[in-house]
Design a protein that fits this description.
- The chain has 359 residues and is an alpha/beta fold.
- The protein starts with 23 loop residues before the first strand and ends with a helix.
- β4, α2 and β5 (102-105) form a beta-alpha-beta unit.
- The longest helix has 32 residues, at 148-179.
- The strands form two sheets. A five-stranded mixed sheet has the order 3-2-1-4-5. Strands 6-7 form a two-stranded antiparallel ribbon.
- The radius of gyration is 25 Å and the shape is globular.
- The chain folds into three domains: 24-139, Ribonuclease H-like superfamily/Ribonuclease H (Nucleotidyltransferase, domain 5), CATH 3.30.420.10; 148-215; 240-340, no CATH class.
- The protein is built from 13 helices and seven strands.
Protein backbone atom coordinates (compact mmCIF):
# COMPACT_ATOMS: atom_id res chain seq x y z
CA UNK A 1 0.00 0.00 0.00
CA UNK A 2 1.34 3.43 -0.90
CA UNK A 3 2.16 5.83 1.87
CA UNK A 4 1.76 9.59 1.84
CA UNK A 5 4.79 11.23 3.42
CA UNK A 6 5.65 14.90 3.39
CA UNK A 7 9.01 15.10 5.14
CA UNK A 8 12.12 16.53 3.55
CA UNK A 9 13.13 14.44 0.59
CA UNK A 10 11.04 11.42 1.56
CA UNK A 11 9.16 10.15 -1.47
CA UNK A 12 5.44 10.90 -0.99
CA UNK A 13 4.31 7.79 -2.86
CA UNK A 14 7.14 5.33 -2.35
CA UNK A 15 5.50 3.08 0.24
CA UNK A 16 8.71 1.49 1.55
CA UNK A 17 8.29 -0.63 4.65
CA UNK A 18 10.46 -2.21 7.29
CA UNK A 19 11.00 -5.80 6.17
CA UNK A 20 12.48 -7.36 9.32
CA UNK A 21 11.99 -6.82 13.03
CA UNK A 22 14.87 -4.66 14.31
CA UNK A 23 16.28 -5.23 17.79
CA UNK A 24 17.47 -1.68 18.44
CA UNK A 25 15.59 1.59 17.90
CA UNK A 26 17.75 4.70 17.57
CA UNK A 27 16.04 8.05 18.08
CA UNK A 28 17.81 11.22 16.93
CA UNK A 29 16.77 14.80 17.71
CA UNK A 30 18.35 17.19 15.20
CA UNK A 31 19.38 20.80 15.74
CA UNK A 32 21.36 23.16 13.53
CA UNK A 33 24.75 22.63 15.23
CA UNK A 34 24.31 19.38 17.15
CA UNK A 35 22.05 16.37 17.62
CA UNK A 36 21.32 13.86 20.36
CA UNK A 37 20.79 10.12 19.99
CA UNK A 38 19.30 7.47 22.29
CA UNK A 39 18.82 3.71 21.87
CA UNK A 40 16.02 1.43 23.06
CA UNK A 41 14.80 -2.12 22.54
CA UNK A 42 11.43 -3.87 22.23
CA UNK A 43 9.38 -4.29 24.33
CA UNK A 44 10.24 -0.68 24.93
CA UNK A 45 13.15 -0.14 27.27
CA UNK A 46 15.76 2.59 27.11
CA UNK A 47 19.18 0.90 27.03
CA UNK A 48 21.48 3.80 26.08
CA UNK A 49 20.57 7.31 27.29
CA UNK A 50 20.86 10.44 25.18
CA UNK A 51 24.33 11.25 23.85
CA UNK A 52 25.24 14.48 22.08
CA UNK A 53 27.14 14.78 18.78
CA UNK A 54 28.05 17.70 16.56
CA UNK A 55 26.01 18.05 13.38
CA UNK A 56 29.10 17.89 11.15
CA UNK A 57 30.78 15.12 9.12
CA UNK A 58 33.05 14.48 12.11
CA UNK A 59 29.99 14.15 14.35
CA UNK A 60 28.34 11.75 11.91
CA UNK A 61 31.44 9.55 11.99
CA UNK A 62 31.43 9.68 15.79
CA UNK A 63 27.77 8.58 15.76
CA UNK A 64 28.65 5.64 13.50
CA UNK A 65 31.43 4.52 15.84
CA UNK A 66 29.08 4.93 18.83
CA UNK A 67 26.42 2.78 17.15
CA UNK A 68 28.96 0.07 16.38
CA UNK A 69 30.13 0.04 20.01
CA UNK A 70 26.50 -0.50 21.07
CA UNK A 71 26.16 -3.41 18.56
CA UNK A 72 23.66 -1.40 16.49
CA UNK A 73 24.35 -2.71 13.01
CA UNK A 74 22.25 -1.98 9.90
CA UNK A 75 20.76 -5.48 10.15
CA UNK A 76 19.69 -5.17 13.80
CA UNK A 77 18.57 -1.53 14.15
CA UNK A 78 16.49 1.24 12.65
CA UNK A 79 17.16 4.98 12.96
CA UNK A 80 14.27 7.42 13.33
CA UNK A 81 14.42 11.21 12.99
CA UNK A 82 11.94 14.05 12.81
CA UNK A 83 11.63 16.02 9.59
CA UNK A 84 13.70 19.16 10.18
CA UNK A 85 14.51 20.23 6.63
CA UNK A 86 18.14 20.85 5.79
CA UNK A 87 19.33 20.26 9.37
CA UNK A 88 18.93 16.50 9.02
CA UNK A 89 19.59 15.95 5.32
CA UNK A 90 23.33 15.46 5.66
CA UNK A 91 22.96 12.93 8.46
CA UNK A 92 20.22 10.97 6.70
CA UNK A 93 22.30 10.72 3.51
CA UNK A 94 25.28 9.59 5.58
CA UNK A 95 23.35 6.89 7.46
CA UNK A 96 21.68 5.54 4.32
CA UNK A 97 25.09 5.39 2.60
CA UNK A 98 26.29 3.27 5.55
CA UNK A 99 23.37 0.86 5.01
CA UNK A 100 21.20 1.84 7.99
CA UNK A 101 17.41 1.89 7.52
CA UNK A 102 16.25 5.44 8.26
CA UNK A 103 12.71 6.69 8.89
CA UNK A 104 11.93 10.43 8.77
CA UNK A 105 8.65 11.19 10.54
CA UNK A 106 6.50 14.35 10.84
CA UNK A 107 7.23 16.15 14.15
CA UNK A 108 3.52 16.64 14.89
CA UNK A 109 2.88 12.91 14.58
CA UNK A 110 5.64 12.15 17.07
CA UNK A 111 4.41 14.88 19.43
CA UNK A 112 0.85 13.54 19.49
CA UNK A 113 2.08 10.06 20.41
CA UNK A 114 2.99 11.25 23.94
CA UNK A 115 1.19 13.05 26.75
CA UNK A 116 1.61 16.83 26.67
CA UNK A 117 3.36 17.19 30.00
CA UNK A 118 6.81 16.64 31.44
CA UNK A 119 10.21 18.03 30.53
CA UNK A 120 10.89 19.28 27.01
CA UNK A 121 14.60 18.92 26.26
CA UNK A 122 16.66 17.49 23.42
CA UNK A 123 17.53 14.47 25.55
CA UNK A 124 13.86 13.74 26.27
CA UNK A 125 12.93 14.33 22.63
CA UNK A 126 15.42 11.83 21.22
CA UNK A 127 14.23 9.20 23.72
CA UNK A 128 10.64 9.89 22.67
CA UNK A 129 11.60 9.48 19.01
CA UNK A 130 13.24 6.13 19.76
CA UNK A 131 10.15 4.99 21.69
CA UNK A 132 7.92 6.22 18.87
CA UNK A 133 9.87 4.09 16.37
CA UNK A 134 9.42 1.06 18.62
CA UNK A 135 5.67 1.56 19.17
CA UNK A 136 4.81 2.51 15.59
CA UNK A 137 7.23 0.30 13.68
CA UNK A 138 4.50 -0.97 11.37
CA UNK A 139 3.70 2.62 10.30
CA UNK A 140 7.25 3.74 9.51
CA UNK A 141 8.35 4.36 5.93
CA UNK A 142 11.97 4.00 4.98
CA UNK A 143 13.66 7.13 3.69
CA UNK A 144 15.65 7.13 0.48
CA UNK A 145 17.32 10.10 -1.24
CA UNK A 146 15.85 11.47 -4.42
CA UNK A 147 17.73 11.04 -7.71
CA UNK A 148 20.18 13.89 -8.13
CA UNK A 149 18.48 15.41 -11.18
CA UNK A 150 15.12 15.60 -9.37
CA UNK A 151 16.75 17.21 -6.34
CA UNK A 152 18.36 19.84 -8.58
CA UNK A 153 15.04 20.49 -10.30
CA UNK A 154 13.28 20.86 -6.95
CA UNK A 155 15.81 23.47 -5.78
CA UNK A 156 15.51 25.37 -9.06
CA UNK A 157 11.71 25.37 -8.92
CA UNK A 158 11.79 26.66 -5.35
CA UNK A 159 14.30 29.35 -6.33
CA UNK A 160 12.11 30.42 -9.24
CA UNK A 161 9.05 30.68 -6.99
CA UNK A 162 10.97 32.87 -4.54
CA UNK A 163 12.17 35.16 -7.33
CA UNK A 164 8.64 35.45 -8.74
CA UNK A 165 7.30 36.41 -5.31
CA UNK A 166 9.98 39.09 -4.92
CA UNK A 167 9.25 40.49 -8.40
CA UNK A 168 5.54 40.64 -7.60
CA UNK A 169 6.29 42.47 -4.34
CA UNK A 170 8.39 45.08 -6.18
CA UNK A 171 5.71 45.53 -8.85
CA UNK A 172 3.06 46.10 -6.21
CA UNK A 173 5.29 48.53 -4.33
CA UNK A 174 6.02 50.47 -7.52
CA UNK A 175 2.32 50.70 -8.37
CA UNK A 176 1.59 52.01 -4.87
CA UNK A 177 4.40 54.59 -5.07
CA UNK A 178 3.16 55.93 -8.39
CA UNK A 179 -0.30 56.46 -6.92
CA UNK A 180 1.00 58.62 -4.08
CA UNK A 181 0.43 62.38 -4.42
CA UNK A 182 4.09 62.98 -3.48
CA UNK A 183 6.64 61.11 -5.60
CA UNK A 184 10.01 59.84 -4.35
CA UNK A 185 12.38 59.70 -7.31
CA UNK A 186 14.94 57.33 -5.80
CA UNK A 187 12.39 54.69 -4.75
CA UNK A 188 10.59 54.89 -8.09
CA UNK A 189 13.91 54.47 -9.89
CA UNK A 190 15.13 51.50 -7.85
CA UNK A 191 12.09 49.27 -8.21
CA UNK A 192 12.18 49.01 -12.05
CA UNK A 193 15.87 48.02 -11.91
CA UNK A 194 15.13 45.33 -9.34
CA UNK A 195 12.18 44.06 -11.38
CA UNK A 196 14.38 43.85 -14.49
CA UNK A 197 17.12 41.97 -12.61
CA UNK A 198 14.63 39.52 -11.13
CA UNK A 199 13.07 38.91 -14.55
CA UNK A 200 16.50 38.05 -15.96
CA UNK A 201 17.21 35.70 -13.05
CA UNK A 202 13.86 33.96 -13.54
CA UNK A 203 14.63 33.43 -17.23
CA UNK A 204 18.06 32.05 -16.29
CA UNK A 205 16.51 29.57 -13.85
CA UNK A 206 13.99 28.44 -16.47
CA UNK A 207 16.79 27.86 -18.99
CA UNK A 208 18.63 25.74 -16.44
CA UNK A 209 15.48 23.70 -15.79
CA UNK A 210 15.07 23.01 -19.51
CA UNK A 211 18.72 22.05 -19.87
CA UNK A 212 18.52 19.57 -17.00
CA UNK A 213 15.41 17.98 -18.50
CA UNK A 214 16.96 17.79 -21.98
CA UNK A 215 19.97 15.95 -20.56
CA UNK A 216 17.69 13.14 -19.28
CA UNK A 217 15.82 11.49 -22.21
CA UNK A 218 13.45 9.39 -20.02
CA UNK A 219 12.56 12.45 -17.96
CA UNK A 220 12.12 14.55 -21.10
CA UNK A 221 9.75 11.92 -22.54
CA UNK A 222 7.57 11.98 -19.42
CA UNK A 223 7.51 15.80 -19.45
CA UNK A 224 6.32 15.79 -23.06
CA UNK A 225 3.59 13.27 -22.22
CA UNK A 226 2.33 15.48 -19.40
CA UNK A 227 2.46 18.63 -21.50
CA UNK A 228 0.12 17.00 -24.02
CA UNK A 229 -2.62 17.43 -21.38
CA UNK A 230 -4.58 20.71 -21.66
CA UNK A 231 -3.47 23.26 -19.07
CA UNK A 232 -0.31 21.37 -18.04
CA UNK A 233 2.89 23.31 -18.67
CA UNK A 234 6.54 22.71 -17.97
CA UNK A 235 6.43 23.82 -14.33
CA UNK A 236 3.43 21.71 -13.32
CA UNK A 237 4.75 18.68 -15.20
CA UNK A 238 8.12 18.97 -13.46
CA UNK A 239 6.48 19.31 -10.04
CA UNK A 240 4.39 16.19 -10.67
CA UNK A 241 7.45 14.13 -11.60
CA UNK A 242 9.31 15.35 -8.52
CA UNK A 243 6.38 14.35 -6.30
CA UNK A 244 6.15 10.91 -7.85
CA UNK A 245 9.92 10.54 -8.42
CA UNK A 246 9.03 9.21 -11.88
CA UNK A 247 7.56 6.07 -10.24
CA UNK A 248 4.52 6.23 -12.49
CA UNK A 249 3.28 2.65 -12.73
CA UNK A 250 1.36 2.54 -9.45
CA UNK A 251 0.02 6.10 -9.29
CA UNK A 252 -3.34 6.65 -7.65
CA UNK A 253 -5.03 9.99 -8.30
CA UNK A 254 -6.94 9.83 -5.02
CA UNK A 255 -3.71 9.52 -3.03
CA UNK A 256 -2.21 12.35 -5.07
CA UNK A 257 -5.25 14.57 -4.45
CA UNK A 258 -5.06 13.92 -0.71
CA UNK A 259 -1.34 14.69 -0.71
CA UNK A 260 -1.80 17.94 -2.63
CA UNK A 261 -4.67 19.07 -0.40
CA UNK A 262 -7.42 19.23 -3.04
CA UNK A 263 -9.43 16.24 -1.84
CA UNK A 264 -12.69 17.25 -0.05
CA UNK A 265 -13.32 15.54 3.28
CA UNK A 266 -16.67 15.21 4.99
CA UNK A 267 -17.06 16.55 8.54
CA UNK A 268 -20.03 15.19 10.44
CA UNK A 269 -20.57 14.24 14.08
CA UNK A 270 -23.96 13.43 15.60
CA UNK A 271 -26.73 15.96 15.01
CA UNK A 272 -25.07 19.23 15.94
CA UNK A 273 -21.59 19.24 14.37
CA UNK A 274 -21.74 19.46 10.60
CA UNK A 275 -19.78 21.34 7.97
CA UNK A 276 -19.62 21.21 4.22
CA UNK A 277 -17.00 18.85 2.79
CA UNK A 278 -13.83 20.87 2.29
CA UNK A 279 -10.22 20.35 1.30
CA UNK A 280 -7.60 20.70 3.98
CA UNK A 281 -5.40 22.99 1.84
CA UNK A 282 -2.09 21.80 3.16
CA UNK A 283 0.58 19.91 1.30
CA UNK A 284 2.95 21.08 -1.45
CA UNK A 285 1.81 24.63 -2.16
CA UNK A 286 3.48 25.21 -5.53
CA UNK A 287 2.01 22.24 -7.45
CA UNK A 288 -1.39 22.90 -5.85
CA UNK A 289 -1.28 26.51 -7.06
CA UNK A 290 -0.19 25.47 -10.56
CA UNK A 291 -2.93 22.84 -10.72
CA UNK A 292 -5.50 25.47 -9.73
CA UNK A 293 -4.23 27.81 -12.46
CA UNK A 294 -4.42 24.95 -14.96
CA UNK A 295 -8.04 24.31 -13.91
CA UNK A 296 -8.90 27.99 -14.43
CA UNK A 297 -7.25 27.94 -17.84
CA UNK A 298 -9.04 24.87 -19.22
CA UNK A 299 -12.37 26.02 -17.73
CA UNK A 300 -12.02 29.13 -19.91
CA UNK A 301 -10.39 27.90 -23.10
CA UNK A 302 -11.21 24.18 -23.54
CA UNK A 303 -14.82 23.38 -24.57
CA UNK A 304 -15.04 19.99 -22.82
CA UNK A 305 -13.83 21.39 -19.49
CA UNK A 306 -15.87 24.59 -19.94
CA UNK A 307 -19.06 22.55 -20.38
CA UNK A 308 -18.18 20.50 -17.29
CA UNK A 309 -17.54 23.74 -15.33
CA UNK A 310 -20.83 25.28 -16.42
CA UNK A 311 -22.70 22.08 -15.59
CA UNK A 312 -21.31 22.14 -12.04
CA UNK A 313 -22.30 25.78 -11.65
CA UNK A 314 -25.82 24.93 -12.89
CA UNK A 315 -26.00 22.25 -10.18
CA UNK A 316 -25.47 24.97 -7.59
CA UNK A 317 -21.78 24.37 -6.92
CA UNK A 318 -19.77 27.45 -5.88
CA UNK A 319 -17.08 28.50 -8.34
CA UNK A 320 -14.15 27.42 -6.10
CA UNK A 321 -15.73 23.97 -5.71
CA UNK A 322 -16.27 23.63 -9.47
CA UNK A 323 -12.65 24.63 -10.12
CA UNK A 324 -11.49 22.15 -7.48
CA UNK A 325 -13.48 19.45 -9.30
CA UNK A 326 -11.68 20.33 -12.53
CA UNK A 327 -8.32 20.20 -10.72
CA UNK A 328 -9.15 16.69 -9.52
CA UNK A 329 -10.22 15.76 -13.04
CA UNK A 330 -6.91 17.03 -14.43
CA UNK A 331 -5.01 15.10 -11.76
CA UNK A 332 -6.87 11.93 -12.72
CA UNK A 333 -5.87 12.46 -16.36
CA UNK A 334 -2.25 13.14 -15.32
CA UNK A 335 -2.04 9.86 -13.42
CA UNK A 336 -3.66 7.96 -16.31
CA UNK A 337 -1.19 9.41 -18.84
CA UNK A 338 1.79 8.55 -16.66
CA UNK A 339 0.56 5.01 -15.98
CA UNK A 340 -0.15 4.27 -19.63
CA UNK A 341 2.88 6.19 -20.97
CA UNK A 342 0.72 7.46 -23.83
CA UNK A 343 -0.10 11.08 -24.78
CA UNK A 344 -3.42 12.64 -23.87
CA UNK A 345 -6.23 11.95 -26.35
CA UNK A 346 -9.13 14.45 -26.34
CA UNK A 347 -11.41 11.81 -27.90
CA UNK A 348 -10.79 9.20 -25.20
CA UNK A 349 -13.81 8.26 -23.10
CA UNK A 350 -13.56 6.14 -19.95
CA UNK A 351 -16.07 3.35 -19.39
CA UNK A 352 -17.26 2.60 -15.82
CA UNK A 353 -16.70 -1.00 -14.63
CA UNK A 354 -20.48 -1.53 -14.48
CA UNK A 355 -20.68 -0.70 -18.19
CA UNK A 356 -18.00 -3.27 -19.01
CA UNK A 357 -19.85 -5.97 -17.05
CA UNK A 358 -23.11 -5.15 -18.84
CA UNK A 359 -21.35 -5.34 -22.22
Amino acid sequence: METVRVTGSVTPFRGASVMNQPHYFVGIDIASESFMAAIGTAPWQLVVPATEFSNTPAGWSALLAWLQRQSCTPATSIVCLEATGVYGEGLTHFLVAQGYPVAVEPPLKVKRAFKPHGHKTDAVDCQHIAEYACRYLDQLSLWRPRPAVLEHLKVLLTTREQLVEQRTAHRNALTALRRKPLHTALAERLHPHLIQDLTQHIAEVEREIRQLIDQQPPLRHLIHLLMSIPGVGLLLATHILILTECATRSLNHKHMAAHLGICPYEHRSGKSVYRRPASRHYGPAQPRKLLHLAARSVATHKPAFRHYYQRKLAEGKPKPVALNNIANKLLKIICAVLRSRTPYSPNYRSVPPAGLQAA
